[in-house]
Write a structure and sequence with these properties.
With 348 residues, the chain is an alpha+beta fold. The protein folds into two domains: 88 residues; 237 residues, BirA Bifunctional Protein, domain 2. Helix content is 42%, strand content 20%. α1 runs parallel beside α4, α2 packs antiparallel against α4 and α5 packs across α9. The protein starts with a helix and ends with a helix.
């Protein structure tokens, strides 16, 4: 009994002064483990004289319960303390750069330019619509006032997938598709990939277009001019002017080619050193897009939705996103956009 009491005191002071969870575990094994004096005593109770079994068993059990409880409490205390210390020590500064800083990628120049253009037209009240790249010739040609044997179908050097399915040659099909499901007024821009069988420094078989369409009551060529002037200034600088020249497209009447005043020479055609500006070839103007007033025949294909040339009018325009990016960022060859050479991509 005296041994047990001494054991209890020894263990209690050892537990109280233990300084780590690991140390406590060692103490648990030493005082409560299978080979500990306490366990041996409890096991050997049967060998004691009968009158001692009760008191010794009771005391030994009381010591075991007391030590277990003390160990549990002390373990919790120490673990909490260790966690606090670890949290304080391991505090990380999330504002530090990665180690080594991870190389951050960025958008492709064409994607960046497309978003820039979309943002400008969203600001002018247009919605952005996208559609299929594989298209019926009905939408790619017919609804755009290009009849079955019109030379434009061949002139456009179309990729045919079957006699009546093509890779779209422009994003206009999505504009007629939109009119089919939405009555006027409609204000949309349609960006996307388009395909033509063509390949040189300024033509690739796949390129990107952004077309615009506005149909409402009393839309005039002046509205078209105003929208394109805003676009030119947002994209190429607040000093830009636009110039409309007569043109021809099967789906617009009248049709106009649109130039912006050159942002390289300021419109004079000459650089500060007196030399001729090669960007605008000395003209002071750069062609950026084609456009016009939607031909009444186009409305004929979507009249079910209330497009009636007697009641509404509208303008449409189309431009190459890649071409705008080439101009704005000084890219000399369109093919560079799609070679994915890191030395090119990383410059933008
Ligand atoms: C160009 C010229 C243009 C259109 C696209 C259009 C669409 C509908 C109706 C009428 Cl639904 N027109 N689109 C109109 C004029 C020109 O694109 O040179 N693009 C690169």
């Amino acid at each position: 009994m005296a041994d047990l009491q001494a054991l209890r005191e020894e263990a209690e002071s050892a537990i109280a002064s233990a300084s780590s969870a690991g140390e406590l575990e060692e103490l648990r094994v030493r005082y409560l483990g299978r080979k500990s004096l306490l366990t041996q005593t409890l096991r050997g109770i049967g060998e004691l004289p009968a009158e001692e079994r009760g008191p010794v068993g009771k005391t030994a059990n009381a010591v075991r319960v007391a030590l277990e409880e003390l160990l549990g409490r002390r373990t919790e205390e120490l673990e909490a303390g260790e966690l606090d210390a670890k949290l304080a020590q391991d505090r990380i500064d999330v504002t530090l750069p990665g180690h080594p800083p991870s190389p951050a990628g960025h958008l492709h120049l064409v994607t960046h330019t497309r978003r820039e253009m979309e943002d400008i037209f969203i600001g002018l009240g247009f919605n952005v619509v996208e559609g299929p790249e594989v298209e019926f010739d009905h939408y790619n040609f017919t609804t755009l006032n290009i009849p079955p044997n019109h030379p434009a179908r061949a002139l456009q050097d179309t990729f045919y997938l079957s006699p009546d399915v093509v890779l779209r040659t422009h994003t206009s099909p999505m504009q007629t598709r939109s009119m089919e499901i939405q009555p006027p007024p409609i204000y949309i821009v349609v960006p996307g990939r388009v395909y033509r069988r063509d390949s040189d420094a300024s033509h690739t078989p796949m390129f990107h277009q952004l077309e615009g369409l506005a149909v409402d009551e009393d839309i005039t060529l002046a509205d078209l001019r105003g929208i394109l002037l805003e676009f030119a200034r947002a994209m190429f600088g607040a000093e830009r002017e636009v110039r409309l020249r007569s043109g021809y497209f099967p789906f617009t009447e009248p049709s106009v080619e649109v130039d912006i005043s050159c942002f390289n020479c300021g419109g004079s055609g000459y650089l500060r050193d007196g030399s001729r500006d090669s960007l605008c070839k000395g003209s002071g103007w750069i062609e950026i897009l084609g456009s016009g007033m939607v031909d009444p025949n186009v409305y004929g294909f979507v009249s079910d939705m209330g497009y009636d040339a007697e009641r509404v009018s509208g303008f449409a325009f189309g431009m190459g996103i890649d071409r705008i990016a080439m101009l704005k960022y000084g890219v000399p060859d369109l093919r560079m956009m799609f070679e994915n050479d890191m030395r090119f991509l990383e410059q933008f």
